[in-house]
Write a structure and sequence with these properties.
Layout lengths: L13 E3 L14 E3 L11 H13 L2 H7 L1 E2 L7 H7 L3 E4 L10 H16 L8 E4 L17 H7 L2 H17 L4 E2 L23 H16 L13 E5 L13 E2 L3 H17 L4 E4 L3 E2 L2 E2 L4 H11 L5 E3 L12 H11 L4 E2 L4 H11 L6 H17 L19 H14 L1 E5 L11 E4 L6 H5 L19 H9 L4 E4 L10 E7 L17 H12 L4 E6 L15 E6 L6 H7 L49 E3 L6 E3 L19
Helix pairs in contact: 1-12, 2-12, 3-4, 5-13, 6-7, 6-13, 7-8, 10-11, 13-17, 15-17
Length: about 650
C-alpha cells in the first residue's frame, strides 16, 4: 500500500537526476530524454488502426468538425448533426438553469444522439469541469480541492476520489473532465493555487498519475466508469512571474524541465488521453503558438499519444487575423480547438487553410489522435457499459469517501494541548466560514466562482460540530463573542470563493473580521482553536499567538463532518503541508529548496496526536481488505509529532 511519496517515480521516456528522488535542494537538475526512449505505445496499435481507417473515409469538412469543441449553450443539435461535430462542452458559466443530475443526463443524451445521426456516426465526447467531484451538478458530493488532497500524500486516496468523480460523471452521461491540474504551484498569490496538488514536482506527478488512473481506468477504458482525463495547463502555469494568471513564466531550461515538465511525464506514463494548453507565455512566447514545447517536447520527447486541446476561446486572443491565429495554433500542435461560440467561423477558416497553409497530413494526425483516444475509452462500444443511476452523484458511499478525504487533508499546524476536544464539553462555534457551505466548497462549484450559503447539499462545519457534541453544548457567534472560561471556541476563518484571475492577490493576509473574531474569542477566557478554510497558505502572524491550536482544512467541500472528526479525535490528523507556509506576505514566493529557506512551517510539516481508534479505514494495495489507519503517538506531549513526506 502506497503511503506518501517515499520512492522515486521512474519514467521510461525521461531520465531525471537522482536528486529528484529527494526533497529539492537548490536549483533542480534538467530533465533529458533517454537515447533509447520508446516509441508511442499508447493509444494501442488496434485503436490507432481503427482511427486511421475512419480518417481515410472522412471528408475534409468532417475532419475539421472533429477538431472543433463548441459550448452546448451556443450550438444547436441540428448543427451537431449537420456538421458532424466531434466534441462539445458545458462550461462553468453555461450550466443548465436547474443543473440536476437528470437535467445533465438529458443534455448528454440529446447531444450524443445528435452526433450519432451524422453521416459517419462517430461518437461525440461531452466535457465539463469536474475538478473536485462532479461539481457542476446540484447536490453532487463535492470533494476537497486538490490543494487539500495534496496534503494527504496518498495516491490511493486520490485515485479513489477520481474514481468516484468518474462514476458520477458516467451516471450523468459526461465523458470528459478538464482535470487534473498538473501545475506545480510556486507562488500562492496565483488564484488557481487550490487547483494544484502542491509546490513539489514529485508530489504533483505522483498524485496526477493517480488521478488519471482513477478517471480513465488503468489501462484506460477498463473498469465500469471510465471517463477522459485532461492534464492542464501545459506548461508552467504555476510558475508565472508574481503568480499572475495570464502573465509570463520565465524559468531557466533546467527549472522548466525538472519542475514544470516532470509531472507531465508522469501524466503521459499514466496514459492521459488529452492535454490542455495554457494561455500564458513561457519566456515571452504564447503557449498556443509554442511548437517547440507542444510538438517537439510534449509529442516528441514525452511521446504523448493523446490529443492537445486549446483553452477557452484562447485562439481568439492570439495576434493576427483569424487565418493567422488558427494556422499558427494548429501548426504548433493543437489538435482540437475550444471555440465556445465561434465554432462556425473556426470551421470555415480552418477548411480554407488546407492545404495551402496547413498540410492535410497535419489535420489527419490531429483527427487520428482524437479518434484513437475515443476508441481507447470504449466510446465505440459505450452501449456495452451499464450506467449507474443519476442518484449516485449524492450517494452515501461518495459522501463517506469525501468525509475521509476531508479528515486526511487537514493539517495540524499548532496544538498546545487543546486537541482533540472532548465530546462532553461546551463549544462556541464562530467565524464567517463556520456555517457557510459555499465557502467550504470554494470556486468551481455550480459555476466558475462558486457562491455563498447552502448552494448545494452538504454539512457545514458548524452543523458537524453540533452533530458531534449535541446542539445544547454548541453555541454559534459570528464575531466570536460570547465564550467564557471553560468554553472552547472553534473559530472558522479564511477565504471566500474565487477562481482564476479573480483570485489573484498581490498581498495575502487574513480578513480583518476574521482576526477580530479570533481576538474576541480569546477575550472570553477559554481555549481557542482556529480552523482555516483556504485555498492557499495565508500569513498567520496576527492570530498565531492568540490560538491554542490551528488546523488548516483547505477547501474541504460538502462534508464538514471530516473536520469535526479530526477536532474531536475520531481520526488523527495525518495531513502534511504540500506548500511551504510563509511567515509573512512579504516572504512569498517561498518553496522547498530555496536558499535561504526560513518559513513559518516547512513543506511536509504536520502535527498529530494519538487517538484510541481510527474512524476511517483505507484499502490496501491489493484491494483485498481494509486496513485501519494507524494512530501515531506523540513525541513531545502537547505539541504532537511532525512527519515529513516519505516518512
Amino acid at each position: 500500500m502506497a503511503r506518501g511519496i517515499g520512492f522515486c517515480h521512474v519514467i521510461a521516456s525521461i531520465v531525471v537526476s537522482v536528486a529528484a528522488c529527494a526533497p529539492p535542494r537548490g536549483t533542480p537538475p534538467p530533465t533529458v530524454v533517454a537515447a533509447n526512449a520508446p516509441l508511442v505505445t499508447w493509444p494501442t496499435p488496434s485503436c490507432q488502426e481503427r482511427a486511421a481507417n475512419l480518417v481515410a473515409e472522412m471528408t475534409l469538412a468532417e475532419k475539421v468538425a472533429a477538431m472543433t469543441l463548441p459550448d452546448t449553450a451556443q450550438i444547436s443539435r441540428a448543427d451537431i448533426t449537420a456538421l458532424a461535430i466531434g466534441a462539445v462542452l458545458t462550461g462553468a458559466e453555461s450550466l443548465p438553469a436547474d443543473p440536476t443530475p437528470a437535467r445533465w443526463l438529458d443534455t448528454s443524451n440529446r447531444v450524443h444522439d445528435a452526433a450519432m445521426r451524422s453521416g459517419l456516426r462517430v461518437p461525440l465526447v461531452f466535457g465539463t469541469d469536474a475538478i473536485h467531484g462532479h461539481n457542476n451538478v446540484r447536490d453532487a458530493v463535492i470533494f476537497p480541492h486538490a490543494v487539500g488532497l495534496g496534503c494527504t500524500g496518498d495516491p490511493n486516496l486520490v485515485e479513489q476520489v477520481a474514481g468516484a468523480t468518474a462514476e458520477a460523471m458516467f451516471a450523468t452521461g459526461v465523458d470528459w473532465t478538464f482535470a487534473p491540474m498538473v501545475a506545480v504551484a510556486r507562488d500562492e498569490r496565483w488564484g488557481r493555487t487550490y487547483e494544484a496538488f502542491g509546490e513539489d514536482p514529485r508530489l504533483v506527478g505522483e498524485l496526477t498519475a493517480a488521478s488519471i488512473r482513477g478517471l480513465q481506468g488503468s489501462p484506460p477504458g477498463t473498469g465500469a466508469h471510465p471517463v477522459l482525463a485532461c492534464a492542464k495547463h501545459f506548461l508552467a502555469d504555476g510558475g508565472t512571474v508574481n503568480g499572475e494568471d495570464r502573465g509570463n513564466a520565465e524559468p531557466s531550461e533546467r527549472e522548466l524541465r525538472a519542475v514544470h515538465l516532470a509531472p507531465y511525464a508522469a501524466a503521459v506514463e499514466a496514459q492521459v488521453g488529452s492535454v490542455m494548453v495554457a494561455v500564458h507565455r513561457v519566456n515571452g512566447r504564447l503557449m498556443h503558438q509554442n511548437k517547440a514545447l507542444l510538438t517537439d517536447v510534449l509529442k516528441g520527447e514525452l511521446r504523448f499519444g493523446g490529443f492537445v486541446v486549446s483553452n477557452w476561446a484562447a485562439i481568439d486572443e492570439l495576434p493576427g487575423d483569424d487565418a493567422d491565429r488558427i494556422a499558427s495554433a494548429i501548426d504548433a500542435g493543437i489538435d482540437m480547438v475550444m471555440a465556445p461560440s465561434s465554432y462556425q467561423d473556426f470551421i470555415a477558416t480552418l477548411r480554407g487553410l488546407v492545404p495551402e497553409r496547413i498540410p492535410e497530413a497535419r489535420i489527419d494526425d490531429a483527427v487520428s489522435r482524437i479518434l484513437a483516444v475515443k476508441c481507447e475509452l470504449g466510446m465505440f462500444t459505450a452501449s456495452a457499459r451499464s450506467r449507474p443511476p443519476p442518484s449516485v452523484v449524492s450517494s452515501l458511499r461518495h459522501r463517506a469517501l469525501a468525509r475521509e478525504a476531508v479528515a486526511r487533508s487537514a493539517v495540524l499546524l499548532k496544538n498546545d494541548g487543546v486537541l482533540p476536544l472532548p465530546k462532553t464539553g461546551h463549544v462556541l462555534v464562530a467565524g464567517r466560514n463556520a456555517d457557510d457551505l459555499g465557502h467550504q466548497c470554494g470556486g468551481w462549484t455550480l459555476g466558475l466562482v462558486g457562491g455563498n450559503g447552502p448552494l448545494t447539499a452538504g454539512t457545514t462545519i458548524r452543523q458537524a460540530i453540533e452533530q458531534m457534541v449535541g446542539r445544547r453544548r454548541a453555541r454559534f457567534s459570528l464575531d466570536g463573542r460570547g465564550a467564557g472560561p471553560g468554553v472552547t471556541s472553534v473559530v472558522v476563518i479564511g477565504e471566500t470563493p474565487y477562481a482564476e484571475a479573480g483570485g489573484y492577490i498581490k498581498q495575502l493576509e487574513l480578513d480583518a473580521d476574521d482576526v477580530t473574531a479570533v481576538r474576541n474569542a480569546k477575550k472570553g477566557g477559554g481555549k481557542v482553536v482556529v480552523v482555516l478554510v483556504t485555498g492557499r497558505p495565508l500569513p498567520l502572524d496576527l492570530v498565531i499567538d492568540l490560538a491554542d491550536a490551528i488546523l488548516v482544512v483547505w477547501l474541504p467541500g460538502t462534508e464538514g463532518g471530516g473536520v469535526a472528526d479530526v477536532l474531536f479525535g475520531d481520526v488523527p490528523p495525518t495531513g502534511r503541508l504540500s506548500h511551504t507556509w510563509p511567515r509573512t506576505s512579504g516572504q512569498i514566493p517561498i518553496n522547498v529548496g530555496d536558499t535561504p529557506y526560513d518559513p513559518l512551517f516547512p513543506f511536509g510539516f504536520g502535527l498529530t496526536y494519538e487517538v484510541s481508534a481510527a474512524k476511517y479505514e483505507e484499502t490496501d494495495a491489493s484491494g483485498a481488505g481494509r486496513l485501519a489507519v494507524p494512530a501515531r503517538k506523540m513525541e513531545d506531549g502537547s505539541r504532537g509529532q511532525t512527519r515529513p513526506f516519505g516518512g
